[in-house]
Write a structure and sequence with these properties.
With 347 residues, this protein is mostly helical. The protein has a domain at 47-258 and 323-337. The protein contains 12 helices and no strands. It has helices at 14-37, 41-53, 56-81, 90-106, 110-122, 127-181, 183-207, 211-230, 236-255, 269-285, 292-302, 308-337. The longest helix is centred in the middle third of the chain and has 55 residues, at 127-181. It starts with 13 loop residues before the first helix and ends in a 10-residue tail after the last helix. The model is unreliable at 1-11 and 343-347 (pLDDT under 50).
């Protein structure tokens, strides 16, 4: 199916898409190798043992909660599109969300375009407007995510303070100090900015004819309409409930995995919050968090007294549950969508 016929094609260069896909996938595989290369034969055997003794009833519950979180996201998207005059079915919204996550497993951010292309074809929602609401959604999720980061720091400061002092703060300070003290770099940046502004002023009529410029303007307009729709939603309380519910379910999806293993079953809610916040960074960086997510969860749980091997095993169990859910439900949604009919009655 060509989901992008109704909207903007996000990646015209198949070669560049392939290169980026290989790069991010390779990064994930490299991180997997890094996390396993120094493990002894006994430690690897312990990880395998953890998988064997894990209580997978909790994993099934986690998969169910994951489906519920994406259902809430589908419902929230419907509310966000309504003020612009578009009413999409819950079925199509859910299909689009799940296929979008499925696409993100291959290449980060591809899912957002796929998701918008689906509703553009089957519900006649203009691609740029749909993309505007998705960007607005992401912005809102980032606000909630930053709040969770702040909450983690405030509630877990005694545990993670040393880690932040040793690993995070020096890097941030180093980057900013180098940036601010490098006067030549700052001067070059200012000059480049002025030149770009002048070029735009003098060449704006010619630039306006470029397709890339026109598409960028359309996306900006769509994003602005998406932002305006936030102030015009008809069910603001329900919208807030859905937004908070999505992240509550994200938290439970990870926290309940702790009960899979005896060694992690007594971990606190704070440990789950720390693992959620830090693990989410891994999902942002690599496709589906492959390699990086389990490694970050491992490093986080070490701060709470969990051994290296148990933490890594727990990270892989949590990642596998989420990945199986996305691949399984995403594949089913893609299959069911192939039997769908668009507004013209064509599949």
């Amino acid at each position: 199916m060509s989901f992008f016929n109704a909207g903007v094609t996000p990646f015209r260069s198949k070669i560049m898409t392939s290169v980026k896909f290989v790069f991010f996938l390779g990064l994930g595989i490299f991180i997997i190798w890094l996390s396993l290369k120094d493990l002894s034969h006994e430690e690897k055997a312990q990880i395998i043992r953890s998988f064997k003794i894990a209580n997978y009833n909790w994993v099934f519950l986690v998969i169910f909660l994951g489906i519920c979180s994406h259902l809430l996201r589908s419902l929230r998207w419907i509310i966000l599109l309504e003020p612009m005059g578009y009413r999409i079915s819950l079925k199509n919204s859910f299909y689009a969300v799940m296929i979008g996550y499925f696409a993100n497993m291959a290449f980060p951010r591809l899912g957002e375009f796929t998701r918008c292309g689906i509703v553009a074809r089957y519900d006649k929602v203009p691609f740029t407007k749909a993309l505007g609401t998705v960007i607005t959604e992401r912005a809102l999720d980032m606000v909630i995510f930053f709040f969770l980061i702040l909450l983690t720091i405030l509630t877990q400061i005694g545990i993670i303070h040393n880690y932040l002092q040793t690993n995070i703060y020096p890097r941030i300070q180093g980057k900013f100090s180098n940036f601010l003290t490098n006067k030549i770099f700052l001067l070059a940046l200012i000059i480049a900015g002025v030149i770009l502004i002048l070029l735009f002023i003098f060449l704006r009529k010619k630039i306006a004819h470029f397709k890339l410029y026109q598409k960028t303007i359309h996306i900006i307009i769509g994003f602005w309409e998406g932002l305006k729709s936030l102030g015009q939603i008809r069910q603001p309380v329900l919208f807030i409930v859905y937004s908070l519910g999505i992240w509550c379910l994200y938290f439970l999806m990870l926290y309940l995995c702790f009960f899979c293993l005896p060694e992690t079953s007594s971990l606190s809610l704070g440990a789950g919050l720390s693992a959620l916040v830090l693990g989410s960074i891994g999902i942002i960086i690599t496709p589906g968090g492959i390699g990086l997510y389990p490694a970050i969860v491992q490093e986080t749980l070490i701060l709470y007294g969990i051994t290296n091997t148990t933490g890594l095993a727990l990270g892989w169990i949590a990642w596998s549950a989420q990945t199986i859910m996305i691949i399984g439900i995403g594949s089913i949604a893609l299959l069911l969508l192939s039997f769908n009919k668009n507004v013209n009655g064509k599949a």
